[in-house]
Automatic annotation (TrEMBL):
Entries under InterPro entries matching the protein: PBDC1-like_dom_sf, PBDC1_metazoa/fungi, Polysacc_synth_dom
Domain Polysaccharide biosynthesis: 30-153
Superkingdom of origin: Eukaryota
Protein name, per record: Protein pbdc1
Pfam assignment, any one: PBDC1
GO cellular component, one term: cytoplasm
Amino acid sequence: MFGGQGVEGASAAAHALSLPAEAYGNDPRLEVMWAMKAYNHAEVYFNLISSVDPKFLKLTKVDDQIYSSFRETFKELDVKQLKEEDLKSDEAKERWRPFCNQFEGIVEDFNYGTLLRLDCEKDYSEENTIFATRVQFFAVEIARNREGYNNAAFKRSKS
């Protein structure tokens, strides 16, 4: 995982990722570590929804709070098939910012970068993946789980 660096390399990487961003500048090695961590998170999550019925998953201690606030703020958002502008347009960012910030101190690493699938019926791929904050990921995936959209991944793995 860390280029053959073993436990010590992984430990050093974990420590490096815990330091404040100001400590780095534009270190490309850090970007690679963040990308690897985000990819590993995506892979673990996809394996989880492929092996356990998603409607039974609890992603955080505050799933109910995230879900109710998300659906109150984003009633019309189609979580089954997101578009990049649902998260990245100027208008979307203005709506997402206060939503995300309300979870500061509640959801660990709430603004940590995470990979999110655009179309929940497809796997992670370059075309189907967008970079989102951790709380955006939780909001969308909790909604997909509760609303039955992630059942496709679970059913596909069982056939």
